Amino acid sequence: MQNKVHIFVCMLFILALGACSGGPQPKAAFETYASDWENENFENMYEQLSTETLENVSPEDFVDRYEDVYENIQRSDLTVQPNYPEEWDVGEEGEVQFPVDVTMQTRAGEVSFSHDVQLSLEERDDEENWYVHWDQQLIFPEMEEGDHIGVTTMEAERGEIYDRNENGLAINGTVLQVGMVPERMEGEEEQSIEDFAEELDISEEDIEMQLEQEWVNPDSFVPLYTMPEDEQDYIEDELMENIPGITFQPEDSRVYPYAGSAAHLVGYVREITAEELEELEEEGYGSHDLLGVTGLESLLEDELKGETGEEIYTYEENAEEPKETIVEKEPIDGEDLHLTIDIELQENIFEELDGDSGTATAVHPTTGEVLAMVNAPAYDPNIYVAGQSAEVHAEWQEDPDQPLLNRFQYTFSPGSTFKHMTAATALDSETITPDEDFDIEGLDWQKDESWGDYEVTRVKDPEEPVDLRDALVFSDNIFFAQTALEMGGDTFEEGIKNFGFGEDIPFTYPIEKSSTLAEGDTFENDVMLADSSYGQGEVQMSPLHLSMTYTPFLNEGDMLTPVLLKEEADEVEVWNDDVMEAETADTILQSLIKVVEESDGTGHEAEVSGQTLAGKTGTAELKENPDDDNDQLGWFVAFDTDEADLLVTMMVEDVQEHGGSGYVVPKVGNIMEEYQP
Q1: How far apart are the C-alpha atoms of 658 and 637, rounded to whole Å?
Q2: Which of 229, 345, 406, 654 has CA 20 to 30 A from 184's CA?
C-alpha cells in the first residue's frame, strides 16, 4: 500500500514538473485552442479535446453544435481571455484548471461570461500534451445537457409621420383582409370566384391560384384583397351577403389616410425582398420587416424603422417556454416624425389640380416652413402596402399622365415667373432705374439682323413706353430681354447665382438643382441671354426653389431656407442673405401686387376680397425651335402680403389649349382664399 501511495505522489510530482518546466505547457496548449476558438476553427478545436470528451461527443456533433449556435445568434468579435495562475496547481487526477473570460457580440447585444476550463496531460502518438475537458457550458454557462439555443425577435413599432396639426400621414393602423373559405362556397365555387373577381376588378386566375395553394384546407381563410377599415359595411352588406364564401379578418398594417394627395411626399413601405434582406440583414432587418421604398418613408428609413429587440435563450427539446435567458435587447420603437406640412392645404391644392398633370408647393414666406408639396396625378400608396401592386403598378407605369412621376422633385422651364430675379439684378446693378421707360413698338423685337428669323415676342402692346412696373404687370418679354442685353451676361449670371442656382437645395427631401445654363455654356450668345431673362432658354427651376426666390420680398432681401421637419422650424434660417437690396425688394413687391390688383394684370383672376396678394404668372414654351408644336407649362406664384403666411407656386402641364398661365391663376386664387392656418 505504501508503495502505491509513493508511486502516485511521484506521478503528481512528474506532472507538476511537466506543467512548470520545459515539458508541454498547459498555457501553450490553451493558447492554440483559444486562437482556434476565436477563429471558429471547430475541427481543430475538436482534435484538442481530452480523451474523455472524445468518447462522449462526435466530431460532427461538436462542429455542428458550434456552427448552429453561432450562426443563429449572429456571433461576431469573439475574444477568449484566459486567466492563468501564477503557479500551476495540479489536481489529483493530473489536471489543471483556470478561469476563462469570454466576450462576444450577438444579434441581441454583447454576451460576457466566465467559466473554468480544465486541461489534462495525456500521451498520444508517443507525445505528451495538454487537452481540454469540454462540455456545452463552454458555449454558454446557462446550457445544460440536452439544451438548445433559441432566438426570439421582438418587433419595433415603425415611427409614424404627422403633419403640423398632428394629422397622421403614415400611421400604424388596421386594414381588412377580404378572402374566401372554400367550404363556405356551398358548391358555388365557380360563380363565387367570378362574382368576386368582377366586383373588385381582380383576375379569376389569381383567385384560383391562391385557393389552390398547398396549405389551403376546406376551412382555411384565404386572403385575396385588402380594404380600409371604413369599408367594413360594404364588405358585410354587399360582398358577404351576395357572394358565398366571402369573409374578412382585420390585420395590422401601415396606412396612408390621405392616399394620393400626399403619396409622392410620404411614399410607401412594402415587405422587404430576399435580395434586400441579403444586403440589410446585418442592420437588423428580418424576413417580414417593412422597408421604406419611396418618399419620406425611404428617405427617413433609419429614423422611422426603430431597432428590433432580440432575446437569446436556452430551451429543452419540445418545450413551449424558454428555459433561461442568456441576453436580451429590448426593442426600440421608431421615431415619430412631425412635418411642417398642413395636410388640409395639401388636399385643397391636390383637388385644384384634379384632372391636370402638374405640381405645386406652398411655403410660409417668413419662416421657410414648407406647408405643401403636391403632385398630380398621383397613386394610392395603400395599394402597395396591401401587396396587390403588380398589375396596378404596370398600369400606372404605362399611363401617359405618369402618376408615378414625382414632379416637385425635378426642374422645369419657369417662364416669366423668373422675371423678378432679372428685375432685382438689373436694379441692384443700376442697369435700370424703377421709373426708366423703354420705348418698345409692336409685339415682336430682335436686336439686329444677326438674329435671323428669331424674335422676342410679347402678348400686349400698350402703345406707350414701358417701365419696370408695366413690364411685370403685363409680363413684357421684350422689356426684360433688352434689360438683360444691356446689363450683359456676366452681370446677369452673377446676380442670378445669388438666388441659389447651381447649389444643392438645403432641404430634407432631395430636389434637383436649378440651373441657368447647360454645363460649359456661357451667355456670350445674345439670343440665349435674352431668352433667359424671362425664364426660357436653358433656365430650369424646381417649384420649391422658385417659391424660395420670392421670400426676399417679405424678408428685406433675404432668401429663406425651406424647412420640412417641425423640429427644425424653431428658428428662421437664411439660405442666402441680401440677394437683393431691401429697397429693391419693396419696389418689385409693389409691382407684383399690381399684377393681381389691376384689372388688366396677368394675375388679376386670383384677386381675393380682403387680401392683398402679390403674384407673377409664367407661360413656358417647350420647343426646340420656332416651328415646333407649342406645348406649354403654365405657372403662377402668389403670396399674401398682409398676413405673410402663405406663398403658393403651381405649375400645370399642357396649358396651351386652356389659355396658358391664365388657366392656373384662378386655381391659386381659390387656394389663397380658402387657406385657414
Answers
A1: 18
A2: 229
Residue 388 is predicted with a pLDDT of 63
56 by Cβ neighbours in 10 Å (0-12 / 13-18 / 19+) ranks as exposed
The answer for residues whose C-beta is within 8 angstroms of residue 257's C-beta and 6 or more apart is: 167, 168, 169, 171, 173
**Cell representation of residue 9:** 505522489
Cβ atoms of 376 and 402 within 8 Å: the answer is: no
CA distance 133 to 151: 28
Write out the E strands in 36-126. 76-82, 95-106, 109-124
- The H-or-E segment that residue 209 falls in is helix 204-211
Beta bridge partners of 314: 149, 324
Distance CA 613, CA 596 (A): 6
Q: Note the pLDDT of residue 244.
A: 94
Q: How far apart are CA 564 and CA 339, in angstroms?
A: 6
Q: What's the alpha-carbon Rg for the chain, to the nearest Å? A: 37
- Which set of grid coordinates corresponds to residue 572? 428662421
d(CA 13, CA 115): 27
User: What is the number of H-type helices and E-type strands within the chain?
Assistant: 24, 23
Edge-to-edge strand list for the sheet holding 631-640: 370-376, 358-363, 647-653, 631-640, 613-622
Give the model's confidence band at 8: pLDDT under 50 very low, under 70 low, under 90 confident, else very high. Answer: very low
Return phi, psi of residue 469, to 5°.
-60, -45
- The Cα 329–Cα 309 span in angstroms is 5
pLDDT per residue over 488-529, tens digit each? 999 999 999 999 999 999 999 999 999 998 666 777 789 999
pTM of the model: 0.83
Per-residue pLDDT, 5? 42
Specify whether 416 is catalytic. Answer: yes
Q: Facing residues of 226 across strands?
A: 177
Q: What is the pLDDT of residues 381-393, one digit of tens each?
A: 998 887 666 778 8
H or E stretch at 328: strand 324-329
- DSSP letters of 124-166? ETTEEEEEEE--GGGT-TT--TTEEEEEEEEPPPPPPEE-TTS
How does pLDDT run across 577-597, given as a tens digit for each residue?
A: 999 999 999 999 999 999 999
Spot the catalytic one: 416, 532, 533, 542: 416
Could you tell me which of 210, 208, 183, 184 has the C-alpha nearest to residue 194?
A: 208
C-alpha 285/C-alpha 219 separation (Å) is 33
CB 584 within 8 A of CB 424: yes
User: 25 and 19 in contact (C-beta within 8 Å)?
Assistant: yes
- How many residues can be counted in the chain? 677
